[in-house]
Specification:
The chain is mainly α and 340 residues long. It has 14 helices and no strands. The protein has one domain: ABC transporter involved in vitamin B12 uptake, BtuC (Orthogonal Bundle), CATH 1.10.3470.
C-alpha cells in the first residue's frame, strides 16, 4: 500500500510540474512579447496578425524584433537545458554542462570561423556550430575515458578546453577586426541580433532532436546506471554514448549559433528539475525543455527592462544567477559525484 501511495503521489507531482511548467512558459512568452524599451499592447499584437506586419509601428516591432527574439530565447533555453541533462547523464556528473566541458566553446569557435569567412546565419552556421560542439564533447569524453580520468577531472579537462578554444577564438578576432566588432555580445550571450534566417533552421533542428531524445528515453535511463550495468542489460554503451553526445552537441550548437555563449543554463535547470522530479529521462527531458525555455525567456525580458532604456546582454544575468548556484552544488555535492 505504501509503495502504491508513493507511486500515485509521484505521478501526481509530475502532472502538476507539467501544468506549472506550461503556465510558466506561457507567462514568460507573453511578457517577453509585450515588455521592452517600447511596450506593446495586446491590440497592437493582434493587429500584426489581422492586418499584417506593416499595420503600425507596434506591429512592425512585434513581427521583426520582439517575436523572433522571444522565440529564440525559448529555443535556446530548451536546447541548452536538455543538452545539459543528457551530458550529465552520459558522463555521470551533475556538474557537467555544455558551458562547463567545452561544448559551447567548441561551437563558439566554429561560429567565429564562419563569421570570419562571411557566413552570418542560416543552416550553414547551425551545421558548423554543431561540428564544433560535437568535436569538443567527444574530445572531453573519449579523452577522459582513455586516460582513466575521474568525474571531477572531466570538469577540469573541460575548463582547460574552454580556455584553449577561447584563446583560439580571440586570436582570430585579433587578426580580423570585422569579427571582433560582432563578437562582444556573442561572448556573453545575447538575443539582440536574432533574425528569422538564424531562428528557423535552429528551431526545426532543436524540436526534432528533443523528439528523438524522448524516443530514446529508455536507453538513456539504462546508460545512466553505469557502464557495467548497462552492458549487462544488453545496451551497446559505446554506440549509445556517442549518439547521445552527438544529439546534445547538436542542441548546444544550435543555441550558440543563435545567441552566443550562454552559460549555466545547462547546469542550473537540469539540476533543479532532478531535485523535484527525479532522474527518469522521460520526465527530466520534458520538464527541462519547458522550464529551461521559460527561464531563459524571463532572463532576457529582465535584461531588456531592468535598466531601461539601457539593455544588458542576457548572458550577464545568467552569470549572476549561475555562478553562485554552481559554487553551492559544488560544495554540497562534493564535486558532482551524485548518482541520483
Amino acid at each position: 500500500m505504501k509503495n502504491s501511495a508513493n507511486y500515485y503521489l509521484g505521478k501526481n507531482r509530475i502532472k502538476w510540474l507539467y501544468i506549472a511548467g506550461f503556465f510558466f512558459l506561457g507567462t514568460a512568452f507573453l511578457l517577453g512579447i509585450m515588455l521592452g524599451s517600447t511596450p506593446l499592447s495586446l491590440e497592437e499584437i493582434a493587429d500584426a496578425f489581422r492586418k499584417g506586419a506593416h499595420a503600425s509601428a507596434g506591429a512592425r516591432i512585434f513581427t521583426y524584433v520582439r517575436l523572433p527574439r522571444t522565440l529564440a530565447s525559448l529555443v535556446c533555453g530548451a536546447a541548452l537545458s536538455v543538452s545539459g541533462a543528457v551530458i550529465q547523464g552520459v558522463l555521470a556528473n551533475r556538474l557537467a554542462s555544455p558551458s562547463m566541458i567545452g561544448v559551447n566553446a567548441g561551437a563558439g569557435l566554429a561560429v567565429t570561423l564562419c563569421t570570419a569567412f562571411g557566413i552570418f546565419g542560416g543552416w550553414q552556421l547551425s551545421l558548423f556550430s554543431f561540428i564544433g560542439a560535437f568535436a569538443a564533447v567527444m574530445l572531453v569524453s573519449f579523452g577522459a575515458k582513455r586516460w582513466g580520468a575521474s568525474r571531477g577531472t572531466v570538469i577540469l579537462i573541460g575548463v582547460a578546453l574552454n580556455s584553449l578554444l577561447g584563446a583560439v577564438s580571440d586570436t582570430i578576432t585579433t587578426f580580423i577586426p570585422e569579427v571582433a566588432v560582432m563578437s562582444s555580445d556573442f561572448k556573453v550571450g545575447a538575443f539582440s541580433a536574432v533574425t528569422y534566417q538564424k531562428l528557423i533552421p535552429a528551431m526545426v533542428v532543436v524540436a526534432a532532436v528533443i523528439v528523438i531524445l524522448h524516443t530514446l528515453h529508455n536507453e538513456l535511463d539504462v546508460l545512466t546506471l553505469g557502464e557495467e550495468n548497462a552492458k549487462g542489460l544488453g545496451l551497446n554503451t559505446a554506440l549509445m554514448r556517442t549518439l547521445f553526445l552527438l544529439l546534445a552537441a547538436l542542441l548546444a550548437g544550435c543555441a550558440v549559433s543563435l545567441a552566443g555563449l550562454l552559460s549555466f543554463v545547462g547546469l542550473l535547470v537540469p539540476h533543479a528539475i532532478r531535485r523535484v522530479a527525479g532522474g527518469k529521462a522521460w520526465n527530466l527531458l520534458g520538464l527541462c525543455a519547458l522550464y529551461g525555455a521559460a527561464f531563459v525567456c524571463v532572463c532576457d525580458t529582465v535584461a531588456r527592462t531592468a535598466f531601461a532604456p539601457y539593455e544588458i546582454p542576457v548572458g550577464i544575468i545568467m552569470a549572476y544567477l549561475g555562478a553562485p548556484f554552481f559554487v553551492f552544488i559544488l560544495i554540497k555535492g562534493k564535486g558532482g559525484h551524485s548518482r541520483d
